[in-house]
Design brief:
Length: about 150
């Protein structure tokens, strides 16, 4: 895990009286190096942290705002570093067949369009937006390729 991420995570955990333990470092390191949201099983595999410890630490890291849950298909939640810790604004492609979640970088044009539409929708509601999430759901290439194979 990068020193900048470690310092920011430690600062976010402090108000909850939580420390940046070696297990939390390992979990954050797995997420930081993944390039996409990970399932708990993937976090366990990449971090060598026991499953129960991974669940507990992910829950605490979500509560502290260091990690966010990304809704998958059929309750298959995944986790990734919150944008303020990854310094990477992105959106997700979610496969409705296998549940894989991939990041994609939005164009400036898409971001302007989203901002304009959100501003128009919320102009009279008094609602204050702190972030937006844009997930595109469909079939990944691997699942598309397996359609039509015998036995599928």
């Amino acid at each position: 895990m990068s020193p900048a991420t470690a310092a920011a995570a430690a600062q976010a955990l402090a108000p909850l009286d939580l420390r940046l333990t070696r297990h939390r470092r390992a979990v954050l390191g797995a997420l930081e190096g993944a390039g996409r949201p990970l399932t708990v099983d993937e976090v366990v595999q990449r971090s060598s942290v026991p499953t129960s410890t991974a669940y507990r630490n992910l829950g605490e890291l979500v509560e502290a705002g260091v990690v966010v849950r990304v809704s998958g298909v059929g309750g298959g939640d995944r986790h990734e570093l919150a944008e303020q810790f990854s310094q990477h604004h992105h959106h997700h492609l979610v496969c409705v067949e296998c549940g894989i979640v991939s990041d994609f970088d939005p164009s400036a044009q898409l971001e302007k369009l989203i901002a304009r539409e959100v501003d128009a929708l919320l102009a009279t509601s008094g609602f204050r937006v702190t972030q937006h999430v844009f997930d595109v759901r469909g079939q990944c290439q691997a699942c598309q390729a397996s359609d039509g194979e015998p036995g599928q």
